[in-house]
Amino acid sequence: MIISTRKDTSFQRRRGIFQRENYKYRSKHRNHRNSRHFLFYFSFCTHVSTLTFGIQHCKSRDIVHTMIDVDFITSDLSKVKVFTSVSLFCGIVYFVAKLNKTINSILVFCWACFVKPLIQKKTVKTGVKNQQQNLELFYKNQAHIYDTTRTVLLKGRKECLRLAISHLQKKKDLVWIDIGGGTGSNIEFMNQISSISKNFKAVYLVDLSPSLCEVARNRFIAHEWTNVHVLVADACDFTIDYKSADLITFSYSLSMIPTFNAAIDNAVSKLDKQGIIATVDFGIQSNDTSIGRVNTLGGLVNRNIPWILRNFWRIWFEADKVFLDSSRRNYLEYKFGTIKSVNQYNKTLGKIPYYIWVGCDKARSSQILTRLNCLATESPYLAPYTSPNAQITESMPVSKGHEAAIANLQKNLPFPSLYYQREVWRVYYDEMNHLYEQFKNQYIYAFTWEDPREDHNILNFTSDDTVLAITSAGDNILSYATLPNPPKRIHAVDLNPCQNHLLELKLASFRALKQDQIWQMFGDGRIDNFTDLLIDKLGPHMSSNAFQYWMDKGTNAFTGKGLYDTGSSRWAIRLGKLIFKVCGISKHVTALCKASRIEEQKQIWNEYIKPVLFNRIVGSFLVGNPIFLWKALGVPANQAKMMGPSVIKYVIDTLEPIIERSLISEDNYFYYLCLMGHYSRTNCPDYLTTKGYKRLTGQKSVTGDIPIDNIRLHTDLLNDVFARLSNKSITIAIIMDHMDWFDPNGVDVINEITAIKQCLVKGGRVMLRSAATYPWYIKTFESLGFKCEAAAIRKSGKSIDRVNMYASTWVCTKLESDDENSGDEVVVGDVDIAKLDAGRRRMSSLKI
Ligand SMILES: C[S@@+](CC[C@H](N)C(=O)[O-])C[C@H]1O[C@@H](n2cnc3c(N)ncnc32)[C@H](O)[C@@H]1O
């Protein structure tokens, strides 16, 4: 193909003129041009350029006619077409932008954020002198479209304000400083949450950009808010008319402040001792930037931003002088105590990482250190609010939380996040404990699979009891707390943090929700506005770790198939449903759950369900399969061995008597839930009944305590919990079937029984269930000074409780005669402690 060089030179020259003109125009009008000028000029220049180009080429073609072949004409024509199309496109964009406000805003936004910073880098060689000029260069032309374009980009702003308000104890006469407040849209958002004119004594919007402040000022005038003040000032050194503020917020501003340390220090000096500081911003934390201070962060869910996103977004935003580096959030988390922290992605714009963080005065919790230690350890030196400096003696047990808090104090770090929470339910746990990894950040049981009614029949709880029990889904813990005379303290223990997140959610619901909302969540297992409830109502009553967990998983858990289709145990339920469906008996299963007479129930069972469940295929592939038993039912190999020679027979002995015992529709919420996926109002755990709701939320007559306040959640191995509890402080330990899991040839069982014994009072009882009628470890209990009695032994055809899952229930009572020897021996010296794997430490061993 022959190419006309003259044509190209001419074209380039013309294009060059266009570019120069364009640049000259932009330089000349840098200070007063606006976006509309730019769009118009861009479109105009493109038109002129294209037209000139077309004419030029017509002429060229005449002159060099002889040199041109057909190829050239075709290619030249196609270039004309391209430029005409571009020109037309630009024209259309220009007119649409003129007519449509949103498109105009988007174009200006794209120009200001994506194109202009790149051009500026080349043209403004000398650089801008100070930050204010910088900000003006960026914001001046887009101040009028700022709000429209930031809705999609700046996610989480409303949630951040809602979370901050829900955590503020004070609700009236508030002083609020919004640092880097921009156009004041946050103050308008806040007005939807809490009335600006009624609840705020003064609101200060501090911003360094005069153009954005101008928009804010007009906005506030329109609202007639006389208590809102706009300060054109630097975040690092502004002043207000009050000594301190109840609320300070940084909404997407910290990442724009070059001197962020000074801005945060200024916020520290202005925040009231009881105040709240809240931030929402882009940020790119990684696991590596969290090392050494994990317990101060309030949870690690989604905190580690993948390498590619970390680097891409950091570089991308740097062009706009927005800095996503982790140092800003780190400094916040160093200067304040972390109350809540959430890590999210803005998925609309391609997974931009952002976080919401709520904090408070770092020193706020020092006075409750002793109290929290006592609550976690059952220390007799319980120091209530009134005597924070109660004497700490040599024999006072020390919780892991106390050790962590003291260690942080020595390094001038904030206390662990759990120390800044409103509720004291959750006991500190070390998030980095590798034992938690096995649970893969999910719970196994969404409901508890043991019958608390039978527990009470056997143990007869009184308000003098201090109970320790395994959490599971927390249903039985709440059932004990619902009793007319509930135990004075209940320690719920689970190694899986998510089981305790589930119980924490239930506790927070009893603190903050109405009965009907609680029913929707835990009776139906579904609720529409879960995240709203979490932010506005439940959040203040939860640890940051549990809050993060439910922010991440809650919406899915409480929609669709609901809560009872979550947790690893859902696989067993799903499989059961699949078998019923494939075998065409689903309608009979529903009929079984509706049956109103035992005879009817028996007939449905014998005719339709039993033949399907107990056929050979289901038997050998599922019930007799160790992988299924472990993965779906949580039955480990050691326990499966204790079931006897035939697992199928074990299952038949479990299920058959259930059909004869009581109506599934009325008095067996365990099986009803598995088959129906939800509870019914008359067939549910006690804590979901009206009586239960009243008891859990109302005042207890004798002591004046609310029963849920006496619950403590430990996320640790049972042995580690026993080791940190005071000697002789527990009257009842309910350890479920957990000892079945131990190896009969190992020492675990000896360690655990010794540790339990140490915490039990004289005559204290251990209640356990087992897959064996006579579990092998009963002998170990007896040899270590317990008297063991079978409270129930299952026989073929007879049930021992409504679940009837276990072959026996035992009560092992600590013998008084053995008590004096055992209690003191075990706690003397570190050598014995190490041997017993109990890890008990004394106050004197701590370097304070
Ligand atoms: C992305 S905007 C966020 C505005 C507003 N908070 C919002 O959420 O819509 C960041 C704001 O921080 C302000 N800013 C940046 N550096 C500042 C400083 N040193 N002092 C005060 N404000 C500053 C900017 O002017 C801008 O208004």
TrEMBL record:
Keywords recorded for this protein, A-Z: Membrane, Transmembrane, Transmembrane helix
Coiled coil (UniProt feature): none
Membrane-spanning segments: 38-55
Protein origin, superkingdom: Eukaryota
SUPFAM superfamilies, sorted: S-adenosyl-L-methionine-dependent methyltransferases
InterPro entries in the cross-refs: DUF3419 (IPR021829), Methyltransf_25 (IPR041698), SAM-dependent_MTases_sf (IPR029063)
Protein name: Methyltransferase domain-containing protein
The keyword Membrane is assigned to this record: yes
Methyltransferase domain mapped to chain residues: 178-275
